[in-house]
Write a structure and sequence with these properties.
- By secondary structure, the protein is α+β, with helices and mostly antiparallel strands.
- Helix content is 18%, strand content 41%.
- A 6-stranded mixed sheet has the order 2-1-6-5-4-3, with helices on one face.
- The longest helix has 15 residues.
Length: 111
């Protein structure tokens, strides 16, 4: 993604994958829809995704990734910490489902 090699990124998804980004009202359904979403993001932003931690459960084909977003100049965007949960297709190893959520702008105790 950070190199904007979208074909390589999209190839990691199963044809019938679902990508649910909690920032949007509905999930992106299928490789074509996910590609359209990623293309719009890539065309309109130079932000980078930086992986902070990862947990892998090979027995259950699950992955969790904790990451943050940086601007092109390397500065971390405020409120940009994310966690994403992936399920991999058992047969192909491709990404089958993703649920991605970002930290809230308002934190408990700051209201």
């Amino acid at each position: 993604w950070n190199d904007r090699k979208l074909v390589t990124a999209i190839d990691q998804f199963a044809i019938d994958a679902t990508f649910e980004d909690a920032s949007y009202p509905t999930p992106f359904e299928g490789k074509e829809d996910i590609n359209r979403h990623f293309s719009l993001l890539a065309d309109n932003s130079l932000q980078l995704f930086v992986l902070d931690d990862i947990a892998i459960d090979e027995a259950r084909n699950k992955v969790a990734a904790f990451y943050h977003v940086e601007e092109e100049d390397g500065k971390t965007k405020s409120n940009s910490r994310h966690i994403a949960f992936f399920t991999l297709n058992e047969s192909t190893g491709q990404i089958q489902t993703v649920y991605d959520t970002v930290e809230p702008v308002n934190k408990a105790g700051e209201v």
